[in-house]
Automatic annotation (TrEMBL):
The keyword ATP-binding applies. Pathway: Pyrimidine metabolism; CTP biosynthesis via de novo pathway; CTP from UDP: step 2/2. It comes from Digitaria exilis. This is CTP synthase. The keyword Transcription regulation does not apply.
Amino acid sequence: MKYVLVTGGVVSGLGKGVTASSIGVLLKGCGLRITSIKIDPYLNTDAGTMSPFEHGEVFVLDDGGEVDLDLGNYERFLDIKLTRDNNITTGKIYQSVIDKERRGDYLGKTVQVVPHITDEIQEWIERVAMNPVDATGEPADVCVIELGGTIGDIESMPFIEALGQFSYRVGPGNFCLVHVSLVPVLNVVGEQKTKPTQHSVRGLRGLGLIPDILACRSTQPLEEHVKVKLAQFCHVPIPNIINLHDVTNIWHIPLLLRDQKAHEAILKVLDLQCAGKIPRKPKLVEWTDRASKCDNLKIPVRIAMVGKYTGLSDSYLSVLKALLHASVALGRKLVVDWVPSCDLEDSTAEETPDAYEKAWETLKGADGVLVPGGFGDRGVQGKILAAKYARENNVPYLGICLGMQIAVIEFARSIMKLHGANSTEFDPTTKTPCVIFMPEGSKTHMGATMRLGSRRTIFKVNNCKAAKLYGNVSYVDERHRHRYEVNPDMVPEFEKAGLSFVGRDETGRRMEIIELPTHRFFVGAQFHPEFKSRPGKPSPLFLGLIAASSGQLDHLLRPCGILGPTGRCSCPNGVTKLKVYQNGHVNPLKGLVNGHYSATSNGAIPI
């Protein structure tokens, strides 16, 4: 097993996660199998109890692990399936060591940070790195490890010590350290400054880690004399100094690495060029095409994102990526209009009328509406109003998790005239509980007590839009994260009033997908389809939203005849088809698609 460690210096937020993912893409393009590990030095056992404002979105894995959003980057970039153990936290490490101490595993020894904590970290990395993460079922060739935070952070010291020991443990030729640092430009002098990176590397060396490669973040490409200066003061060869300057979209990052021959530098450090398995030159044709197409999209599609964490886009990172994947597949330039749900409420009209008017103007100017998941009662009334607006005005709507639940509440209040209808999450004493607490949930413990991970949804209505979008499969497996569910006892009343529950769990008692059959596109999902969306495999429900919002849904859902040699079907506008897998996701296959469209003649671009 070979290891690539990615660390960060100077400031946080430099893009270590995207850099680590892009290194993985580059090495995968060389024919190597890749796995990833994210180290988060915080004391939390996992990310599940943290506010999105604290650490961005909580990403959910198939096994129910609530993890850092960077694992979402790894899965999307590398098209792999990770587990909760691929996210190491201080809390997990200390909990494991304390459990061993309580069992007597240390035979009376004094348990200390060194060697017990550091050994646990190293053993965890070695164990998890061997777990297969792709369809081959074989262990990876290279494990990319990202150390969260910034060099010098006090909470990451045990991990830095452990990784320093680990580099000696695995031996020369098996460990490559990539240090991501900042080369800023001061407006006063207008030149690129190397001093922050010099100090960062000096601090890294002082902690026992020596960088093999420098990945320098900057707004503009590095000047040659700056590279020479960095090489001189940081003791890193010029070919190993990689510049990651700002780009139009993140799909360019693997291409930047390739163009600067970062793969050659990494393979040389890892001694892979001399190993039995000789990697090929990186094949990144799909990435090149995708990055170029994304840059050249002209026709906009506006989606109103109605939520309460709109001040931090990382709170909805996977949703944004899923929207982007679908937009590129359908040849549309994504424009996300953020709408704070609180600003849609009547109380805002009285307190801050300007914000109220702006929120409603933004909502009404959108081509489609998306209400993502969330917790708590703040802004819920605004989300209900957004769902009502979309339903009454035939505007495409996608509700995810809470977004589905509030659509059910709105339907009960407006159509069924149950004015007291609510969720017991927001009103525990409501006499019309449309949404209820799940019986198996815990009301005393927050962490890892929700319905989490991959669960099966059975389609009960075959000719509904959702089933067609998923390729008319009988079931799909999607990831969940919720404590509340639609009240199954009220489902017959809802269906009698016209709301269709087209997808249910295997028991038939838990509602998974709702639709309004008479609406252009009004769909809600209890699961989170965004977590399984990939650049080359857009989530079907997001494809549906973007297609409906851009006038392409009829073509997307239309059954087609036999494909010709060019992959064109007999539809009037002509479309390129996508392969639909049993898991409900779509994937390009030699320019063809069985059941889903990715392009039309009026400006759409096939992925």
